[in-house]
Design a protein that fits this description.
Layout lengths: L10 H13 L14 H7 L7 H19 L19 H6 L7 H13 L3 H8 L11
Helix pairs in contact: 1-3, 2-3
Length: 137
């Protein structure tokens, strides 16, 4: 089987990643209201109008999730939740081959996100160093 080549994170994905890293200190695993909603992300990043979940997907979420998975990084995209249910959308869970009912897995990912040193990732972007060359496991 041929190994899938790793891709660089595009500008929209980097923008979303930076935004989410800044949100980490305010997120509390057991406090649903502490998570940013898709609508808040659209507003905060001045994204185009439309169905918030779809807009976020088209403006960095899809490429960010692919990139996180390729580099074995915590699922920081799981910080964004729906306003109605206070959990990530079904697309988040399906991207990781999980059921939306698997909330314990999601909470564990949020804990991993909070424990991970994201500064090492962001520094590479600012130094224009290729992040895919080494990846983190």
């Amino acid at each position: 089987m041929e190994k899938q080549s790793k891709t660089e994170l595009d500008t929209k994905g980097k923008t979303l990643l930076h935004y989410l890293v800044k949100k980490i200190p305010t997120v509390e695993v057991e406090i649903p209201s502490s998570f940013p909603t898709y609508s808040e992300v659209v507003e905060d990043l001045s994204l185009p109008a439309g169905r918030a979940g779809n807009v976020v997907q088209q403006n960095g979420m899809n490429t960010l999730v692919d990139w996180l998975k390729q580099n074995s990084l915590p699922a920081i995209s799981g910080l964004i939740v729906t306003k109605a249910k206070s959990i990530p959308g079904e697309g988040f869970f399906s991207a990781y081959q999980r059921s939306p009912e698997d909330r314990e897995w999601w909470k564990q990912e949020v804990r991993r996100v909070k424990e991970f040193d994201w500064s090492s990732v962001l520094l590479r972007f600012h130094s224009n160093e290729s992040w895919t060359a080494r990846g983190y496991n």
